[in-house]
Fold:
Amino acid sequence: MADVEHSHWWYDASRQLLEEILGEHARQGGRFLDVGAGPGATGAWLAEHGDLVACDFMPLALDLHRERHDGDQQALGYVTADVQRLPFGDASFDLVLCVTVLCHQSIPRPQAAVDELARVVRPGGVVCLWEPGVRRLWRAHDRETHSARRFARRDLVELMTTAGLTVERASGAYSFLVPPAAVKSVLERGESTSDLDRNQGGLGGLLGTAAATERRALRHIDLPAGLTVFAVGRA
Structure:
């Protein structure tokens, strides 16, 4: 992830989509939490708008985050912690971002994790969940990333609602990738490979262009499904 975060089309497209989804919520001077931050590939941009705390279960991920993103943005905090037991007080953050964490094998009960995210966000603040979509679309990439599950849009809605959050929007994304991913899931049966190892340029820019077209549509509508699903809930 760290090696390709600035060169892989998916990370560039995902950062742009997250900025569109959360731009109005990332008010200048706010306090933000990126849970499962990894090396900063999808959430480090929040530090441009306020104080960001990067939280991850793996110390190596935070070392890479600090190495690549510290010093050129506003104050960053780094906390090694389990999303199921966050070491923060109630109502500590204006915005909480959680990207591809609930799918992981280390999270036996996604609801417990979302309850924690809801606990640490301030009244009026927002939580954004972003997870792999299409429940039945199990692929080689899932095996490589130690994923235990994929999600439907309604799954994220239920998780947020149960945690006491009011869902403002829930949508699929990268819907154009579902058919080729379904084909790949058959061809790669039994294998364990990462999507990050190939097509960094997105087929000569074709996939990036498709993602940009979809982003324009997502400004007006929510999609019922996609290779990614996301939801935004307000405390």
About this structure: The longest strand covers residues 121-132. The domain at 9-234 is CATH 3.40.50.150 (Rossmann fold).
